[in-house]
Amino acid sequence: MTEKSTQSVVITIDGPAGVGKSTAARGLARRLGAAFLDTGAMYRAVTLAAVERGIDPSDTAAVESLMETRRFEFCPQGDLTRVWIDGADKTAAIREPHLTEQVRHIAAAAPLRARLVQMQRAFAADARRVVTEGRDQGTVVFPDAAVKIFLTADPTERARRRHSELRAAGKDVSLDAVLTGQQQRDAADESRTVGPLKPAQDAAIVDTTHLTAEQVIDQLESLVRGRIHG
Ligand code: DC
Q1: Is the CB of 103 under 6 A from ligand 1?
Q2: Residue 92 to residue 169: CA distance in whole angstroms
Q3: Is the CB of 44 under 6 A from ligand 1?
Q4: Chain centroid, CA 67 distance in Å
Q5: What does the alpha-carbon distance between residue 89 and residue 133 come to, in Å, rounded to a whole number?
Q6: Domains of the chain: which residue ranges?
Q7: Does ligand 1 have an atom closer than 6 angstroms to the CB of 135?
Q8: Computed from CA positions of residues 97, 98, 99, 101, in that sequence, does the dihedral angle turn out positive or negative?
Q9: What is the band of 6 on the pLDDT scale with cuts at 50, 70, 90?
């Protein structure tokens, strides 16, 4: 790749829940020798930190001061993003369905988003290349990213994928419940005024409905290599 030595090369992957962003972003990062940033894990970790302290996630001021006192660490490992809060491993806890439902309060709060955006930019500034995934990476966080990708997929297929992941993790949850939760999250993601889910104008849209994870990664890799030469 042709890269300026002082500036990180950023590749953003945005899209709705269950579209396969994490798997695609992680696989792409591995192939490109890039760092990987799972921004959803950050929103989840802040939510958990609040809930653990008995703070209502919709109390933005209280969550904001809590963010200053707790230490968050994120580290990609295999197919997971390991998360620690004050040194305690919270990797599994941030994925619990009841926690997932509460993340929308953090995601809709402008001051909290601003802090997380700052952390995401700092992470990218430290890496030579980074693949970052979320909802607002191409639109708000990295408007000058080298390549922007927006993943879509049929909602029923997305719910089916998330359902299998939850079942594989031993969670007894019905496909209907997953689909209903997903519709609520999609609506919240698309309608919030700060950092809403939407493709950047210059994003490449990739529909993953009929693709395997490996095929998605192949497609993204050729897209990126076609745009960033060397
Ligand atoms: O990608 P995920 O399911 O782990 O994301 C969890 C929640 O965090 C999701 O409901 C929306 C929110 N989120 C966000 O608002 N902005 C991001 N960049 C990433 C996630």
Answers
A1: yes
A2: 10
A3: yes
A4: 19
A5: 22
A6: 9-224
A7: yes
A8: positive
A9: low
List, for residues 97-122, the tens digit of each pLDDT value.
899 989 999 999 999 999 999 999 99
Q: Which residue, judged by its Cα, is nearest atom 6 of ligand 1? A: 40
Q: How is 140-182 classified by DSSP, letter by letter?
A: II-TT-SEEEEEE--HHHHHHHHHHHHHHTT----HHHHHHHH
Whether the pLDDT of residue 229 is over 80: the answer is no
What does the pLDDT look like over 145-203, one tens digit per residue?
A: 999 999 999 999 999 998 998 899 888 899 999 999 999 999 999 999 999 999 999 99
What digits encode the pLDDT tens for the residues 88-97?
999 999 999 8
CA 77 to chain centre: 15
Q: Which fold has domain 9-224?
A: Rossmann fold (3.40.50)
Closest CA to ligand 1's atom 8: 40
Assigned token pair, 199: 């493709």
Mutation to probe ligand 1, out of 113, 135, 161, 182 (largest number of atoms < 8 A from CB): 135
**pTM score, two decimals?**
0.93
In this structure, the residue with its CA closest to atom 16 of ligand 1 is: 135
- Identify the bridge partners of residue 129 per DSSP, sorted by sequence position: 9
Separation of alpha carbons 75 and 78, rounded Å: 10
94 pocket-lining for ligand 1 (C-beta < 6 Å): no
Q: Above 60 in pLDDT, residue 5?
A: no
CA of 106 to the centre of ligand 1 (A): 9
